Amino acid sequence: MQARRTAVRAVLGVVVVTFLVSALALVHVAAWSWIRQRWQLETDATAALLAAGDLVIAGVLTMLALRLTPSQAEIEARLLRQQACMALTETMAWPTILLRVLPLLRLLRRRDDTSGH
Predict the structure, then answer these.
(1) What is residue 65's three-state secondary structure?
(2) Alpha-carbon distance 25 to 51, whole Å?
């Protein structure tokens, strides 16, 4: 059931992104029209101005993304998760080793029994 829900969410996410990209394209068309009418610019000048604006917005968003660092709570949660995984690994190590070694010991014991006869 969870896999189906995840698949539905993924499909809905793709649809949402499609609509967002379409809306962004229409915003660009509207901006294009407004710039051309407002300042009566040529096509190439309008395109250059619109591209410059896109680059500035992309730069600002990139700078914001680069400044995002993990919070103290995130760091502590990661450390706690790592410690729990290490503790679980240490706890599970001996039973795992025994489960792998016991069949070998039995095999060796059988060899000794058969070779001694």
Answers:
(1) helix
(2) 13
Nearest-10 Cα torsion for 74, 75, 81, 83: -160
pTM of the model: 0.56
> Which residues are CB-contacts of 35 (< 8 A; sequence separation ≥ 6)?
41, 46, 49, 50
**pLDDT at residue 108 in the model:** 79
pLDDT > 80? residue 46: yes
Q: What is the pLDDT of residues 84-115, one digit of tens each?
A: 888 877 777 777 777 777 788 788 777 777 76
Cβ count within 10 A of residue 49: 16
